[in-house]
Design brief:
The complex is a heterodimer of chains A (351) and B (251).
Chain A (H helix, E strand, L loop, with lengths): L1 E3 L2 E3 L2 E5 L12 H17 L8 H5 L3 H10 L5 E4 L15 H8 L6 E3 L8 H15 L3 E4 L16 H13 L3 E4 L16 H9 L4 E5 L6 H10 L3 E4 L6 H4 L1 H14 L5 E2 L9 H10 L4 H7 L5 H15 L4 H9 L2 H5 L7 H6 L1
Parallel strand pairs in A: 3-4, 4-5, 6-7, 7-8, 8-9, 9-10
Antiparallel strand pairs in A: 1-2
Chain B lengths: L8 H8 L3 E2 L4 E2 L6 E7 L2 E7 L7 H16 L6 E7 L4 H9 L4 H4 L8 H25 L4 H4 L7 E2 L6 E6 L4 E6 H13 L24 H30 L6
The chains are: A alpha/beta (351), B alpha+beta (251).
């Protein structure tokens, strides 16, 4: 748990990966370019002394991940958001199956989401149901820019995608996390479109749409949609590291998000292993709006607001009772290994 | 031609400086995308590196083609070779742009030519520039609802050497503001045909309609949002560019 000005801040890292971009797993040059591009994001925003080597970055083990998140990273829980990229990587890049290795070992610490791809049709639907049956996920991560054969992406408002969203409703999967970051394809018309989220969110008011990366580089379109659709949320992965490297830009982005979405619809995610939650959470918790920024946007970034962003908002979406969780985490294996028991003591005394 | 001052790389850079990264509305020279320029009349060669190998091929093409056209404007330059380095479609784009082919002919899965993409970015650039212009007016005591009423003829760009004169109708208010933000705005608004006649409204909603004064605050906030997005994306490109090209001083 993070301590901020004498207060406990329960942290749920809403966006983590357990990936494999080792040379042996790369099936297509796109796979190599993909990890290189991720690595540029890593080195571009990570303080120099915290940077990994490219080799470390290609593939890391479970011990390291657990230590980076919970031992040194302040996170109390973390949420797996799979990214399959099956055409680029032999066994996939970051799949539900890979993630399950950790999630099943520490079920009290990890939330395991899965994924679907509407281009997989009937067969894909059966596979999706099988995964849901097996892993009981409460959310899906969707990567609309994924290449599949000749196709360079898909849309969330397509008929095929709607069939899967209907299936989510039927199966009780309420949280949809579309990745809306930079896309390179389709080449022109739709390259900067978040409108598909708008149509999907309107058509499925019973689902929550957590737009990962707050739509950057389309923050403006994203915020305008979110202002009108109460079931649209913003995931801070990619925006968060600005707190360290470009604090005034971070303040601007937070000002906009708080103005258009409000403090209840913003959720934190580190995007581990792109960035480690340790330094990232420190930077976000230390971030402040200047008096001028507060006046400009008419919003506050108080400790209470940060507590919502760091865990309370996403706990709400995933029906996680934070006080109960603290009791559960007090004596799990991870608390024991990293000597975290005392952090959760207060919770028990309060009850 | 050989007796006049020869065209050099700095002349090419001066021209290329006008080319913007469409997503950021900033000069590709200022953004440090131009690695090298060589001139061997009648040929000029421009080497570019973008912040990421995954930069949209459409955006990369636009920058490469605009750089080519800017350099071709120079007297004595008839041929411009553009080399886009370290990009996943670097070869196709370099070859296609240098041979003056069309984007949609080189990329057969492109749905269309680039005019729609250009229009979209011009539109966003216009909106972001409007924010800066309306802010400059607000600093001079003209609030957004008053700015909403301004027409092109009410603004005398750079009337006073670095300052622009603005006559606010109805309220008998005359102010001067720094030229740069309003000049940048007017240039873009005129280029996209939003403003042409003296009677045209100077500013517009996000959708390009006249601003109802009662909505002026909301329109201004949405314009701010567009500008914040550009700044944010600029920050990402900036960090990626540094990470990739090792501009930071190595310890």
């Amino acid at each position: 748990m993070y301590q901020h000005e004498g207060e406990d801040v329960f942290v749920i890292d809403g966006h983590v990966h357990y990936w494999d971009a080792s040379k042996e797993n790369i099936a297509h040059e796109g796979g190599e370019q993909f990890i290189q591009c991720f690595y540029d994001y890593h080195t571009g925003f990570t303080p120099e002394e915290k940077q990994w080597s490219l080799d470390e970055y290609r593939k890391y083990d479970k011990d390291r991940m657990v230590r980076d998140l919970f031992g040194e990273g302040y996170a109390d829980m973390a949420m797996f958001q799979p990214t399959y990229l099956s055409d680029f990587y032999e066994e996939g890049f970051n799949t539900t199956e890979q993630n399950a290795e950790l999630a099943e070992e520490y079920p009290e610490r990890f939330v395991l989401n899965t994924s679907f791809d509407p281009r997989d049709g009937e067969e894909g639907m059966e596979e999706f149901e099988r995964k849901v049956e097996k892993y009981d996920p409460k959310g899906v991560k969707l990567y609309t820019a994924e290449w599949r054969g000749d196709s360079k992406g898909w849309r969330l408002d397509s008929e095929e995608a709607f069939e899967y969203l209907e299936k989510c409703v039927e199966l009780g999967i309420e949280n949809i996390h579309p990745h809306k970051g930079p896309t390179i394809r389709p080449l022109n018309r739709d390259a900067f479109d978040v409108k598909d989220v708008d149509d999907a969110a309107t058509s499925f008011p019973e689902l929550n749409f957590v737009v990962e990366h707050v739509g950057l580089p389309r923050l403006d379109d994203f915020c305008w949609i979110a202002a009108q659709e109460p079931n649209v949320y913003g995931g801070l992965a990619v925006a968060a590291p600005f707190a360290e490297q470009r604090p005034r830009k971070f303040a601007e982005i937070m000002g906009e998000l708080l103005f258009w979405l409000g403090e209840d619809r913003i959720v934190f995610g580190s995007d581990y292993a792109i960035w480690e939650p340790g330094w990232l959470i420190e930077a976000v918790m230390e971030a402040e709006l200047t008096a001028e920024e507060r006046a400009e946007y008419g919003v506050e970034l108080t400790t209470d607001v940060k507590k919502k962003i760091m865990g309370e908002n996403i706990a709400e979406l995933y029906d996680i009772d934070i006080e109960e969780k603290k009791q559960e985490l007090r004596d799990d294996e991870i608390a024991d290994r990293f000597d975290l028991e005392s952090q959760y003591e207060g919770a028990a005394a309060d009850d | 031609m050989s007796r006049s001052a020869p065209i050099g790389p700095s002349d090419v850079i001066d021209r290329v400086e006008r080319v913007t990264d469409p997503e950021l509305d900033r000069s590709i020279v200022d953004l440090d995308y131009v690695d090298d320029v060589a001139v061997d009349p009648p040929t000029a060669t421009i080497e570019l590196t973008l912040p990421t190998a995954w930069c949209s091929p459409a955006f990369a093409w636009m920058m490469a083609a605009d750089a080519r056209d800017a350099a071709r404007d120079l007297p004595g330059i008839e041929r411009v070779r553009v080399r886009l380095r370290d990009h996943m479609h670097g070869e196709e784009i370099s070859r296609g742009v240098s041979r003056r082919r069309a984007f949609e002919d080189v990329f057969d899965d492109a749905e269309d030519d680039l005019s729609a993409v250009r229009a979209q970015f011009d539109h966003k650039a216009r909106v972001a520039r409007q924010y800066d212009a309306v802010e400059a007016l607000a600093d001079a005591g003209v609030d957004p609802s008053q700015s909403a009423r301004l027409r092109r003829r009410d603004v005398d760009v750079d009337a006073l050497d670095g300052r622009t004169a603005v006559q606010v109708p109805n309220v008998d208010l005359y102010v001067t503001i720094p030229t740069e933000p309003i000049e940048r705005y007017v240039r873009k608004a005129e280029a996209i045909g939003l403003v042409s006649a003296p009677d045209d409204r100077l500013f517009a909603t996000i959708e390009g309609e006249p601003v109802p004064p009662e909505d002026a605050e909301t329109v201004h906030r949405r314009a701010r949002l567009t500008r914040t997005n550009m700044h944010g994306q600029g920050g990402i490109c900036d960090r990626l560019h540094e990470a990739r090209n090792g501009d930071r001083t190595d310890a």
